[in-house]
């Protein structure tokens, strides 16, 4: 019995020696780093209101989406929020989810005035008008030639739309 206890004691000492804590004083340890730094990933998001066509293409954004994003910026002056991408034809929920991982709102858009009497359907959609509102505007313009002021405009759109856009609407000109 004494032999078994002695063997267990020797084995325990041997085991402790093999599995001792690493010696950090000899500088023989490796640092394992993640292939993606989370801070860098956030910094890699592109400002959708400023990023160039070339930068978007370099980040593997499809050319068709790049041209639509540039067009949207040129027409409206930029994006207030990333969800505005859904106003662009061809960008639905799934595509939006992918693109929202690449873009951010890093700067305020320089919103452009909208001439309500000359705007086409796509432009109205880009500014956030619903399909019903666009139809009402078209119908009104067909009957009356032009929308003359905020009072007429307010009757054609939802209160929320009116409040968001009232300062951006220009009433110059006649039919489209």
Main attributes of the structure:
single chain, two-stranded parallel sheet, 176 residues, mainly alpha, two-stranded parallel ribbon, elongated, RuvA_2-like, DNA polymerase, domain 1
Description:
- The chain has helices spanning 2-18, 38-43, 53-58, 63-76, 93-99, 121-126, 131-144, 150-156, 159-165; strands at residues 46-47, 103-104, 114-115, 169-170.
- With 176 residues, it is mainly α.
- Among the domains are: 46-104, DNA polymerase, domain 1; 114-170.
- The strands form 2 sheets. The protein has a two-stranded parallel ribbon with strand order 1-2. It has a two-stranded parallel ribbon with strand order 3-4.
- Residues 37-42 have low confidence and may be disordered.
Helix-strand pattern, N to C?
Answer: HHEHHHEEHHHHE
**Gap from first CA to last CA:** 105 Å
Kindly name the structural category. Answer: mainly alpha
* CATH-derived topology of the domain at 46-104: DNA polymerase, domain 1
CATH architecture of the domain at 46-104: Orthogonal Bundle
CATH level-4 homologous superfamily of the domain at 46-104: AF1531-like domain
What is the multimeric organization of the chains shown?
single chain
CATH class of the domain at 46-104: Mainly Alpha
> Using only CA atoms, what is the Rg?
31 Å
Can you tell me the residue ranges where pLDDT is under 50 for at least 5 consecutive residues?
Answer: 37-42
Mean pLDDT rating: 85
Number of helices: 9
Q: How many strands, which pairing sense, and closed or not: the largest β-sheet?
A: 2 strands, parallel
**Which geometry do the CA atoms define?**
elongated
């Amino acid at each position: 019995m004494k032999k078994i206890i002695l063997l267990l004691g020797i084995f325990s000492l041997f085991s402790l020696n093999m599995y001792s804590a690493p010696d950090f004083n000899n500088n023989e340890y490796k640092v394992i780093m993640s292939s993606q730094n989370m801070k860098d990933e956030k910094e890699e998001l592109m400002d959708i209101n400023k990023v160039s066509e070339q930068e978007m293409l370099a980040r593997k954004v499809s050319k068709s989406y790049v041209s639509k994003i540039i067009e949207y910026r040129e027409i409206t002056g930029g994006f207030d929020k990333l969800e505005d991408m859904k106003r662009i034809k061809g960008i639905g929920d799934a595509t939006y989810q992918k693109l929202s991982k690449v873009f951010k709102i890093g700067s305020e858009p320089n919103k452009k005035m909208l001439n309500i009497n000359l705007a086409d359907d796509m432009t109205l959609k880009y500014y956030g008008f619903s399909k019903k509102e666009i139809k009402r505007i078209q119908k009104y313009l067909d009957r009356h030639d032009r929308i003359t002021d905020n009072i007429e405009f307010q009757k054609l759109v939802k209160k929320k739309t009116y409040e968001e856009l009232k300062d951006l609407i220009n009433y110059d000109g006649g039919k489209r």
